[in-house]
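Obj: model holo form, ligand = iron/sulfur cluster.
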Amino acid sequence: MERSFDSWEQEVIRCIRCGACQNVCPVFKELQAESTVARGRVKLIRGVIDKDLELTEGFINKMSLCLMCKACVVNCPSGVKVDKLVEAARKEIAEKKGLSPLKNLIFRLVLKNRWVFNTGMKAGSVLQGLVFRKGPLGQGMLPRMSLGIDKRRLLSPLAAKSFKAMYPVVIKVPAAKLRVAFFTGCMINYIYTDTGRAVINVLKRIGVEVVIPALQNCCGTPVRINGDYETAKAMARANIDAFLKEEVDAVVVACGTCGLSLKEEYAELLEDDPVYAEKAKHLGSMIKDFAELVVSLDGFEDKMGPLPLKVTYHDPCHLVRGLRVKEQPRQIIRSIPGVDFKEMSKPDTCCGSAGSFSLYHYELSTKINDHKVEDVNQTGAEVLVTGCSACRMHIADGLNRQGVSVKVMHTAQLLEMAYEAKAH
Ligand code: SF4
Ligand code: SF4
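Output (holo structure tokens):
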């Protein structure tokens, strides 16, 4: 039986109201309001469970003001799963109040249906010039009109051709040491095809054969964290079917959020499903982040040429606190000859993106992002490397707003550059 909202009382009573979460919550740092820190959110949720509070607009707004960054979770002495509580509250809101017409359309018609999504993205890549113009530093595009998005919001353009349309389903490697399936995620498939290309080139170079299952979908995270569990479950089942039919040693993911979803959250979502509960756990056991997979293979550092670059690294929240991948990307960066690696003072604080958070709460997300840009700036780096496409886009937006010329790329792209430097 699916978990009821009231059953989360067991979790809320674990909060001892110590206030340790105040020191780490990026939203509280900006707003300084108790209702926007973990302790305050937990109290509000308890109020609704105890029937002292209603699902008012104020409550809905406070639940939407969470980045789901897990900073409070890993610093909480009682281990309160605040992000799970906020998600449960959002599910309760979606069930009792319904989704907005826009979310309904995007989640249930577009994201859930691969063909509709793909067709929409194809049309968007042709028509985007009508509604967007080039960004000042040439890294992206800015809306010409409001479109419900802040006109200062730098977005990366949709690729003319999706990543999956550019590659065959199997990328063969002679005498491969491993065979993996690649979960591309939406942003790599439709926007950052350069990251996808780098993942393939790097894996080929180190002797890994790659399968790109054609029937894979969006991982469903935007749908799940907005409370639409039925759609999220349907998307999870479709991905489980698409990946478990491949005969592979692992499933590689190049985004912390997609990775966490496939590794842990599918199993939670489908724990009561008689057919898919075990399959979800099995898929979860096969998930490897790109950097995690690369450093586990002997000799990945042998074939690099020098890159005389000053580089820093941003830890995506779900990669570092969800999948606990912290050292592996640094190991890759440090192993490249010529790279001068400069650590930020707070490399693992959230950049303020949190997917749709940066669209709905742009002003707040830019304030959070400004601290990241400051931190990047003080390193003097020319390149910022990260392991998540949403962070890549949001930090590029922040750098663009402040006129800072730092190139932002995925770990796989830096490694691809190092291999190419050896080849030339
Ligand atoms: S750190 Fe944990 S226990 Fe302490 S107030 Fe925050 S949520 Fe409650
Ligand atoms: S998950 Fe992040 S944004 Fe949400 S309450 Fe915790 S620290 Fe704050």
